[in-house]
Write a structure and sequence with these properties.
alpha/beta, 8-stranded parallel barrel, TIM Barrel, binds phosphoenolpyruvate, 247 residues
Length: 247
């Protein structure tokens, strides 16, 4: 019997505007209280206004990336120190879109997770296989390799991260992993974490990939799924609230 508290995180990706953000956040705030912990990871320019709107609420906020560097000549990068100044509780690192479109390696993702944690920000480390890798029977090897880099970089601090299993073929495609497929990978990840830290059974493992109001409850009821990382369904308050309530 697990005592893990569920976590539902919205990943806004590169969506939003002052007006759209205000409407979305008001919709989320109006639906409180949630049983699950709820957070939104927003584009960097909106962190300030989101922090103001959500301060003193039970809804947390975070970023969608975090530099591996502390400071310096890294044009376009945002450091964990800066994110901490804006009250970020979470930073997504290693999202498949960053791995694919920005060439982020396992080692870089691990370094980003370490940088976030050093400033008290919980990294949400994304792992997941492509369709080709799944069809080639490589799912387990791929996610273990991705997670292994983070375990190696963080040592015992690995117990402080959140891991999100996001099969690349399910992200933004409307194609969701079945609850059994997702649970099977989550069990593999938790076993890998258990070999690295005694805190593995307390760690939150999120599922991400076309989670919607109509499939959230069955996914979140799996033994090793502790909530979700939500993309498309995080952009409409009614959908996000329904997903959060399913947790
Ligand atoms: C994501 O981007 O993390 C994600 C899971 O997206 P979607 O829910 O749209 O598949």
């Amino acid at each position: 019997m697990t005592t893990r508290h569920k976590l539902v995180v919205g990943n806004w990706k590169m969506h939003g505007s002052h007006a759209a953000n205000a409407e979305l956040l008001q919709g989320i705030l109006a639906a409180r209280p949630f049983v699950a912990e709820v957070a939104v990871c927003v584009p960097f320019p909106y962190l300030s206004e989101v922090a103001v709107t959500l301060s003193n609420s039970s809804v947390a906020w975070g970023s969608q990336d975090c530099s591996a560097h502390v400071q310096g000549a890294y044009t376009g990068e945002v450091s964990a120190t800066m994110l901490a100044e804006f009250g970020c509780r979470y930073a997504i690192v290693g999202h498949s879109e960053r791995r694919a479109f920005h060439g982020e390696s396992d080692q870089l993702v691990a370094d980003k997770a370490k940088a976030a944690l050093a400033k008290g920000i919980t990294p949400i480390v994304c792992v997941g296989e492509t369709l080709e890798q799944r069809e080639a029977g490589e799912t387990e090897a791929v996610v273990k390799r991705q997670l292994s880099a983070v375990i190696h970089a963080l040592g015992q601090c690995i117990g402080e991260v959140v891991v999100a299993y996001e099969p690349v073929w399910a992200i933004g495609t409307g194609r969701t992993a079945s609850p059994e497929q997702a649970q099977a990978v989550h069990a593999v990840l938790r076993a890998q974490l258990a070999a690295a830290t005694p805190r593995a059974s307390d760690m939150k493992l999120l599922y991400g990939g076309s989670v919607k109001p109509d499939n959230a409850a069955i996914l979140f009821s799996q033994a090793d799924i502790d909530g979700g990382l939500i993309g498309g369904a995080a952009l409409k308050a009614a959908d996000f609230v329904a997903v959060a309530r399913a947790a």
